[in-house]
Amino acid sequence: MNQKLLLRELPEEERPREKMLRKGASFLSNRELLAILIRTGTKELPVTDLADRVLALRPEGLAALADCTPEELSQLPGMGIAKACQITAALELGRRIATAPREKRVQIHDPAVVANLFMEEMRHRKQEVFRVLLLNTRHEILTIQEVSVGDLSSSIAHPREVFRDAVRRSAACIVAAHNHPSGSPEPSRNDLRITRRLAETGAILGIPLLDHIIIGDGEYISLREQGYLQTE
């Protein structure tokens, strides 16, 4: 007799949730994604089989789920209104994400753009603040990370911390920026040292350091424009 395995009886690497954590959501089938939303089956019906029934509810399959009401889904044996609402809510979130207008991203085409982003806030800081802009292939800002607050040194602005999120977010390149509480943007020996280390690390990782901007009191310096970084 072909006995159906319950989810907990499957090898761990075959369970949808563990598979998602290990490989990512894109590696899961429609059936597995639905099983994660539904969470539990019944004594007689494993959750993956319940997911199959949801997919077979209409002849059109997955595409038709968006038109199903919670009441319609809840009529399936083993579903109930709570699970039906979970599926409906997830589908609605997906629809809203797909139709939401994309926010226009700031493009870094000039050191002045970076300076203008930070000048008014950083020029008055009493401590050095080191930030990293993660950019995509069009040099648009994906996100801005605050790496450290305090004295700029290799232990604080360490390449490991600077590039950690750049790797995780698959950034194409980065721009570093920090302020000088003294008001003068002239680079110190330590500024040049950390810039070299970041440039070398970026070259190894394939995430180049485009520039390092130093913010003073109403003025700034681009280390690329000053010749401390090679033009790609």
Number of helices: 8
How far apart are the termini? 66 Å
What's the number of extended β-strand segments?
5
Q: Strand count, sense and closure of the main sheet?
A: 5 strands, mixed
The fraction of residues in strands falls at 5-15%
Please state the overall shape, judged from the principal axes of the Cα atoms.
elongated
Give the helix/strand class: alpha+beta
Uncertain segments are: none
Instruction: Report the C-alpha radius of gyration, rounded.
Output: 26 Å
Side-by-side strand order of the widest sheet: 2-1-3-4-5
Helix content: 25-40%
Q: What is the mean predicted local confidence, pLDDT?
A: 85
| Strand/helix succession | HHHHHHEEHEHEE
Describe this structure in a few short sentences:
With 232 residues, the chain is of the alpha+beta class. Helix content is 39%, strand content 14%.
Descriptive account of the structure:
It is built from eight helices and five strands, in the order ααααααββαβαββ. By secondary structure, it is an alpha+beta fold. β4 and β5 form a beta hairpin. The protein is elongated and about 70 Å long. The model has no long low-confidence stretch (mean pLDDT 85).
Which descriptors apply to this entry?
232 residues, alpha+beta, 39% helix, 14% strand
Question: What are the SSEs and their pairings?
Answer:
Layout: H1 16-23, H2 30-38, H3 47-55, H4 70-74, H5 80-99, H6 111-122, E1 129-135, E2 141-149, H7 159-168, E3 173-179, H8 189-205, E4 209-215, E5 220-222
Parallel strand pairs: 3-4
Antiparallel strand pairs: 1-2, 1-3, 4-5
Helix pairs in contact: 2-3, 7-8
